[in-house]
């Protein structure tokens, strides 16, 4: 089971504005923070996410093929999360819509270029 996912940032203030807005829509508060990182999640809840300045002091960079998927409660929330992301410095990686028979998602990048999506399983495969 995944406890949390961490994404690197070169601008913690900008990353926090982005993730605070996403977390508000998901009703997920900040649960830890320091001068170098902020983490959002609920103890005993689903996996959380953290934005951090790299420990080694080098610049944060995007992992090719790495993506954080945020589970939405319905299609409307997929759209809201996508819109919130773009309104807070994110960029489009694929507008919300169906992806196959049982999956609905919108894809975006945060201000540092980390890829995320908001998704909903819309049926049972098979």
Automatic annotation (TrEMBL):
CDD domains referenced in this protein's UniProt entry, alphabetically: VOC_like
Domain of life: Bacteria
Keywords: Dioxygenase, Oxidoreductase
Pfam family, one: Glyoxalase
Protein name: Glyoxalase/bleomycin resistance protein/dioxygenase
SUPFAM superfamilies referenced in this protein's UniProt entry, alphabetically: Glyoxalase/Bleomycin resistance protein/Dihydroxybiphenyl dioxygenase
Keyword Membrane recorded: no
């Amino acid at each position: 089971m995944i406890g949390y996912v961490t994404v690197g940032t070169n601008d913690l203030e900008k990353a926090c504005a982005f993730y605070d807005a996403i977390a508000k829509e998901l009703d997920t508060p900040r649960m830890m923070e320091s001068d170098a990182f902020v983490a959002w999640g609920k103890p005993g809840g689903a996996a959380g996410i953290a934005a951090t300045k790299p420990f080694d002091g080098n610049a944060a960079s995007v992992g090719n093929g790495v993506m954080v998927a945020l589970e939405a409660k319905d299609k409307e929330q997929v759209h809201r999360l996508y819109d919130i992301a773009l309104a807070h410095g994110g960029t489009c990686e694929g507008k919300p819509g169906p992806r196959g028979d049982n999956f609905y998602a919108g894809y975006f990048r945060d201000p540092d270029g980390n890829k995320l999506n908001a998704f909903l399983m819309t049926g049972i495969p098979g």
